[in-house]
Specification:
The chain is mainly alpha-helical. The chain has helices at residues 10-22, 27-37, 42-55, 75-90, 95-105, 110-131; strands spanning 58-61, 68-71. The protein has six helices and two strands, in the order αααββααα. α2 crosses α3 (42-55).
Amino acid sequence: MRTNYPEPTESEVEILQILWQKGSATVREVHEVLETKKDVGYTTTLKLMQIMVEKGIVDRDTSKRIHIYKPLIPQSSVENNLINKLRQKIFRGSASRLVIGALSSEPVSEQEIEEIREFLDSYTKDNHSKTSPK
């Protein structure tokens, strides 16, 4: 499995988010979603997606009249890369400052807090078992 991907721009990440949610989509379908968020022309969306094909960020199925695009980069890969960059650039490498900053910037739902607790419990258990003598 490929692990080093081209780094998408902010606009490309917006398109990837739509494709990750839908699985695959036409330019028109992607554009309709983007239009609800910002003022963007159809030709701009088309050009961005063509560039993304050239960069190896998305794949385009041209076997039918309507071209279908799908993401080639896993969502987790982009998220991890962006989080690591943010952690290094803004929080001086501190994971705790990153998490505290994220949690204190806006209200967090009880469901999200529970997901965070479950993750921390699992993370602690996994890392403790790796460092404990047997």
